[in-house]
Structures are given as C-alpha cells and as structure tokens.
Design a protein that fits this description.
Structural class: alpha/beta
Strand content: 15-25%
Helix content: 40-55%
Number of strands: 13
CATH class of the largest domain: Alpha Beta
Strand order of the largest sheet: 3-2-1-4-5-6-7
Largest sheet: 7 strands, parallel
CATH topology of the largest domain: Rossmann fold
Radius of gyration: 21 Å
Order of helices and strands: EHEHEHHHEHEHHEHEEHEHEHEHEHEHHH
Number of helices: 17
Number of domains: 2
CATH architecture of the largest domain: 3-Layer(aba) Sandwich
C-alpha cells in the first residue's frame, strides 16, 4: 500500500507524546508499505530531523507554517466556532503544497494524525482516510479549565466546547477513526463512536530496560516541562507532596527531568530538588532514581512516561486519571493516590519497604512489557487501513 501520513509536528526528537506515537507508527508501517510522511513545521526544527526520519520512511517532507499567519488565523477564529487547536495549524499555502504532494504520490490511504491536521485532508473524497484522534482534546481542555485562574478559565471552557463540537463534526469525513484509550473514546460524543478503534501506544522495551545503577535521587518525574499538564503535576509534586515527604525523610531528593522547563519549573531548584532540562538519554534519569511519581491532574490519553518507568522496573505512583488509560492493577502493578497526603504516604511507604517496592516494580514491568508493543499496535492500525482498502 501507499500511505500518506500527515503529522502536526516534526516527530524528532521524541520529547512529546504525539511525536513518539507517529514516529513509531510510521516506522512500523513503512516496513511493509510505501509511506510518505508529511510534517507541518512550526518554529525551529532539529538539524538532524530530516535525516533521522528518512531512515524510517521512504519519503519525508516538511511544510513550514508562517508564524504571522498563525497569529492572524487565531484572531479570525475568535469569530468562528472552529477550535484554536485546528486554526493554529491550518494555512492555505500549506494546503496547496499538501494537495500537490497527494496528487503526485497518489496514495491508497491517508492517515491524519490528530484533529489538528484533519482540515487538510477531510475533502479528499476519492481517497480512503483514517483520523487518529489520539486523545480527546476536549476532555484534556476541560480538565485544564477546572484548575485555571478565573481570567483564563473562560477561554479554556470556550475552547473545550469548540473542540467537543469539532471532534464530532470531523468524525463523518473519515472512513476510519482511531484513539489511544477507551477512556478517550468515551469522550467523543458522536452517535457512531462505537466504531472508533482503540490503538494504544506501544513501548520500545529493548530501549527502555532495567539496569542496575547507583541511585542519585529518591523520586523522579519526567516529561516535557512546557506542557501544561506536566507543569501542573511537577508543581503539585514539588510544592505540596514533597514537603510532606521531607518531614519524614529529610534527606530525600527529587529529580524533575525533561525538555524545555518553564521558568516556574526552573525556580523549583533547591538542595533537595533537581531540574535537569533536556537530557540526551532520558533513561539515565529513570535508572538513577528509586520511585517514579506522576501526580497528573490534567490532560488525557495514555502516559508514555509511565510505560517507560515501569519498563525500567521502577515502582510507580500516579493518579486515577492517568491510570484510567493505562489500566494497571492498583496496589499490585501500580500505586494510585489523589491528595498530596496520599501521595506522600505512598512514597514514604515504598521508600521504607524494599519488598513492596520490588513487588510493585516487577508486576508493573510484567504488565507493560506484555501489553504495550509498537509492533503489535501498529499491526492493528495497518489491519484497519488494509481492511478498508480491500473493502
């Protein structure tokens, strides 16, 4: 098959969840199909990105979006019902470039990653199409609105409503629709949502593997530190949970690892809190810490950071929101907490109980390595695409 993939960002380096998903899906699909990966490009791109992506796909093209045009589009969106998430990534010049590529490549199938890219291909009636919602953006935005300041909350509520409407309207333009979890699927309020196929993220268990190494830190949280749900979780951990832990364990150390930390994250640095910024190899952070703590309160979808930590055999503690998509067994494969005190109590218990820590780590490791695999999930995606083409 000839598959045209359109992604809203250049998926290299792999510091964001959507980049990780499309990178591995494109890589697996390209093993048995001819894949054209078309990426919208906003801002500065890694100098090695094109070369690295050409290693996994037969054709790669970046389409640069104009920053001034982005601002103009966002202004116009104030007077429409379209989500800002969609308007941000759509430009007519880019549409013409994409049309030209599609006409020349003549794909058997179009795979649109995220609703952000759907406007570019929704009218391609002569080609069978799949839309990967990935997450329910409306759910994630609603959760952000709940915890936002009174000044920004109305804007986020409005965007959540726009997203909810668009997620349902765009459904009918595509023959196939996929999503990352059952939790997110239930948030697409279309009458045909049962047709949405859950394609979970995978895990590169050969790369993320256990390794015996001296522990520099007791606690670790990782992720892109300019992404609001991660920022909220890091602040919750550092300002509300960690002080409770220090009362019982005054020598405890916390590492917050991940790219592009905002100033408020950088400001958390202290004798007990370390902020890494970008790391060439995020595994060093996992291998160097005792417990992974992900107190996520916002966002949606399956958290790759939890898959990675558990694959490295770290006992992990997270929120119910984050585990809903993951589906790990509470108190056996993972620990679940809600309040700052609950998180602190779980952390102190695990740090003081080696047997419990090892049991949670081993069970979590067995769970993620058995249930999350990029090859398996991408084969499921390929079968969805092939089945539609074959009719």
């Amino acid at each position: 098959m000839k598959i045209f993939i359109i992604a809203s960002r250049v998926p290299y380096p792999l510091e964001k969840g959507d980049k990780l998903r499309i990178f591995h899906q494109a890589k697996e699909l390209a093993k048995t199909n001819e894949v054209f990966l078309c990426c919208l490009e906003v801002g500065k791109t890694h100098p090695e990105a094109k070369k690295e992506l050409e290693k996994i796909c037969q054709h790669v093209e970046f389409i640069k979006l104009n920053k001034l045009k982005i601002i103009f589009n966002l202004f116009l969106t104030l007077f429409s019902s379209k989500p800002f998430q969609v308007a941000y990534f759509y430009q007519r010049k880019a549409q013409k470039q994409i049309d030209t590529i599609i006409n020349q490549f003549k794909p058997d199938h179009i795979y649109s990653q995220l609703i952000r890219t759907s406007e570019y291909v929704k009218m391609k009636h002569h080609i069978i199409k799949t839309l990967d919602y990935m997450d329910s953006f409306s759910l994630g935005m609603s959760r952000r609105a709940e915890n936002a300041s009174f000044l920004i909350r109305p804007v986020l509520i409005s965007e959540a409503k726009r997203l909810l409407h668009y997620e349902n309207v765009i459904f009918d333009y595509f023959e196939n629709r996929t999503i990352i979890s059952e939790q997110d699927k239930e948030q697409i309020w279309h009458k045909g949502r049962k047709e949405i196929i859950v394609i979970p993220n995978g895990l590169d268990s050969e790369y993320f593997h256990p390794k015996s190494m001296a522990k520099k830190y007791d606690l670790l949280f990782s992720g892109n530190m300019s992404y609001i749900p991660n920022v909220d979780a890091a602040l919750f951990l550092a300002k509300e949970i960690f002080p409770l832990v220090l009362k019982e364990l005054p020598n405890c150390k916390l590492m917050i690892a991940g790219a592009t930390p905002l100033a408020k994250i950088e400001a958390l640095r202290s004798d007990h809190i370390f902020v890494s910024g970008w790391m060439d190899d995020i595994r060093e952070a996992y291998w160097g810490a005792r417990i992974f703590v992900a107190p996520l309160r916002l966002g949606s979808g399956l958290q790759n950071k939890l898959l990675e930590a558990m694959a490295i055999k770290m006992p992990s503690i997270t929120s119910k929101i984050a585990n809903t998509a993951l589906g790990a067994k509470e108190n056996d494969e993972i620990l679940i907490s809600s309040t700052a005190q609950e998180f602190a109590d779980q952390i102190i218990f695990i740090l003081n109980n080696k047997d419990a820590a090892e049991s949670i780590a081993e069970n979590g490791f067995q769970y993620v390595t058995s249930n999350f695999n990029w090859k398996t999930s991408s084969k499921k995606l390929e079968s969805v695409i092939k089945c539609t083409i074959d009719g």
